[in-house]
Amino acid sequence: MSLLSMKPRSFGVACAAVLGLALCADVPKGPAVPLANPLAPAAKAPLKPNRATQLDINTASREALLKLGLDAKNADKIIAGRPYLTKTKLITNKVISQGVFIGIRDRIKVEIKDPAKAIAAEKAAHPKAR
Question: Is residue 75 within 8 Å of residue 51, measured between CB atoms?
């Protein structure tokens, strides 16, 4: 019996049967690409620099600030506005833009040897800042 000689209802049943068999066939499930070895160590995210490798903005030279990727104008502004109590004072005192700060914040630090002297000097350098 050919497909053309079948009654429409019989043809529909035959198509449904073939489709059902195709869907139930043993088709491999999952990704087509092989998976990575689950026992292999996971790739580590890059670590932030530790405090020993960060640059202290209160004592850094102009050349060291330039090596961070700052331009000469921003490096000079950082030096002129010293001392800083925290590294976020670079933004609050409007020394550099927030975008520039985001680019260097993980590579800088602030170390204060004499907090009382640093507070007085910061107030004198930035009288309008709170």
Answer: no
Task: Name the phi and psi angles at 119, rounded to 5.
Answer: -65, -45
The structure's pTM equals 0.57
| Rg (the chain; Cα; Å) | 34
Q: For residue 104, with 0-12 CB atoms within 10 Å meaning exposed, 13-18 middle and 19 or more buried, which class applies? A: buried
Is the distance from CB of 83 to CB of 120 less than 8 angstroms? Answer: no
Distance of alpha carbon 109 from alpha carbon 58, whole angstroms = 9
- The HSE-up count of residue 78 (CA atoms within 13 Å, CB side) is 32
The owner of tokens 């050919």 is 2
Distance CA(43)–CA(12), nearest Å, equals: 54
Domains of the chain: residue spans and CATH: 55-125 (1.10.150)
Q: From first to last of its 130 residues, what are the pLDDT tens digits of the chain?
A: 555 555 666 666 666 666 666 666 555 565 566 666 666 665 555 556 677 789 999 999 999 999 999 999 999 999 999 889 999 999 999 999 999 999 999 999 999 888 888 788 778 876 766 5
